[in-house]
């Protein structure tokens, strides 16, 4: 009797269903609770969720990337809005210098991301 | 028929509106289509127009679970015609027919993986009672297992 388990890569992306001869062959990269999977390889990532009856679910990689990018964009917009408010509250003679400093800070941040 | 990957890309206003309407179209049509959606999510529904079935992804998003038939009232949920089942009630539930064949009176269930069958000539109650009625039974000599008896010796004064 073989044991079926889903195999993930190091980042939690689904690779394939494995058929193992013994329980001892189940590794940390296997999801032993997943005994069938019709998803394509390399397109979905396992995200653990203790409220899920399977202990988690597979989510589309492209969709996850979009959500993360949007979250960053929204956070960035909120930070810039707060920054504008802070600069507006400064005395007029300090605003120009504060704006320049903020621009430099943003540029450095983007550079770090790259 | 409408499906969408449920990911709204960066785009101009008109394109965004069109894309968003595509999402809404997919939602209101239960992601209907001849083939499964290209991008799938846990608990996502799919009106499979090829098989004529309503389906839903399982909680782990690893398989489709069929809910019922698209063209049937109530999706034809429930049991296939002819299904036999036990109910502990006098009258059959709505939509079910009570089995009245006398062969099932005073009968017991025995499980087997082969062909379903009925059989046996002994009533269940009588057999159950007989199995426990040993009081008053007298063992024959042949039925008694080997054993020993011990007695204490006693001295009697002369």
Spell out the blueprint of helices and strands:
The complex is a heterodimer of chains A (114) and B (158).
Chain A: E1 3-8, E2 14-20, E3 30-31, E4 44-48, E5 56-60, H1 61-88, H2 92-113
Antiparallel strand pairs in A: 1-2, 1-3, 4-5
Helix pairs in contact in A: 1-2
Chain B: H1 13-28, E1 45-48, E2 53-57, E3 64-69, H2 124-132
Antiparallel strand pairs in B: 1-2, 2-3
Name its key features.
heterodimer; A: 114 residues; alpha+beta; two-stranded antiparallel sheet; B: 158 residues; three-stranded antiparallel sheet; 9% strand; elongated
Note down, in words, how this protein is organized.
- The complex is a heterodimer of chains A (114) and B (158).
- With 114 residues, chain A is α+β, with helices and mostly antiparallel strands.
- Helix content of chain A is 44%, strand content 22%.
- In chain A, the strands form two sheets. Chain A has a three-stranded antiparallel beta sheet, with no helix packed on it. Chain A has a two-stranded antiparallel sheet with strand order 4-5.
- Chain B contains two helices and three strands, in the order H-E-E-E-H.
- Chain B has 158 residues and is an alpha+beta fold.
- Chain B has helices spanning 13-28, 124-132; strands at residues 45-48, 53-57, 64-69.
- The A-B interface holds A 6, 33-34, 36-39, 44, 52-54, 56-60, 62-63, 66 and B 5-9, 39-42, 58-64.
């Amino acid at each position: 009797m073989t044991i079926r388990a889903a195999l993930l890569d190091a980042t939690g992306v689904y690779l394939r269903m494995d058929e193992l001869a013994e329980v001892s062959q189940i590794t940390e990269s296997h999801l032993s609770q997943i005994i069938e999977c019709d998803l394509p390889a390399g397109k979905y990532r396992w995200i653990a969720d203790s409220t899920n009856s399977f202990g988690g679910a597979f989510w589309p990689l492209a969709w996850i990337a979009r959500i993360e990018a949007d979250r960053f964009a929204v956070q960035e917009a909120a930070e810039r809005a707060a920054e504008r408010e802070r600069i507006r509250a400064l005395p007029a003679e300090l605003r120009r210098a504060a704006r320049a400093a903020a621009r430099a800070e943003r540029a450095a941040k983007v550079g770090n991301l790259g | 028929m409408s499906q969408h990957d449920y990911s709204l890309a960066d785009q101009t206003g008109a394109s965004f509106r069109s894309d968003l309407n595509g999402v809404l179209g997919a939602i209101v049509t239960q992601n209907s289509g001849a083939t499964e959606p290209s991008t799938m999510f846990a608990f996502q529904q799919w009106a499979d127009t090829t098989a004529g079935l309503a389906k839903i992804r399982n909680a782990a998003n690893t398989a489709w679970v069929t809910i019922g038939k698209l063209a049937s009232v109530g999706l034809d949920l429930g049991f296939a015609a002819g299904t036999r089942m036990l109910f502990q009630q006098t009258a059959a539930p709505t939509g079910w027919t009570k089995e009245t064949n006398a062969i099932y009176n005073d009968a017991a269930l025995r499980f087997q993986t082969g062909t379903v069958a009925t059989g046996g000539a002994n009533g269940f109650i009588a057999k159950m009672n007989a199995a426990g009625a040993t009081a008053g039974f007298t063992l024959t000599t042949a039925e008694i297992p080997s054993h020993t008896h011990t007695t204490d010796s006693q001295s009697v004064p002369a």
